[in-house]
Amino acid sequence: MSKQSRYLHHTWVHSSSAVNIAVGQQQREPMFFYFAYGSCMCPVDLKRSLGENTHNFVIGPGILKGYRLGFYRYSAFRKCGVLDIIQDPTSTVHGVLYQLPWRISDRLDEREDVPRGGYRHEFVDIHCQGRVYSSVRTYVVVDKLAKEHAPNDWYFNVVLRGAVTCGLPEEYCWNLFNHMYQLQQQPRIVQ
Asked: What pLDDT score does 19 carry?
């Protein structure tokens, strides 16, 4: 093969790739940004309830300023306390920023118990990879408990697995671990 034919082959592959990228962008479906801070940080668990692989929709670790985490909801489905975010100007919440297809929005709302008043949408600014994403959907508990309720072992593990897998800071993961562990050491509230 001559140098010229190798060059032509390279040019052809490059041109074809550029056309495929442009066509793919034109056919792209509507998307929305979603910030997960609890069990949805784990793409495997999110896939379980949404029915499709969500790994490809992860943008990266994100930071929500002016909020803190708390277990202010009891989930009858999970039979334990589950995470919520509470406004707090001195705190930050780390989580995972996704860009999800609009077609799964209803399934995500169902998972977060929106139709029954468990959580509601909140639109926030998320800092991720040196950029600020505005109007990102996240979820907050509608009727908050007066006191935090401990997670069970399954929820504890899936939240921590999501945090570690998606690359949240090590110190944050340890603080999250300690918070959940301390809640589990308190006397249990019977629901």
From this structure: 34
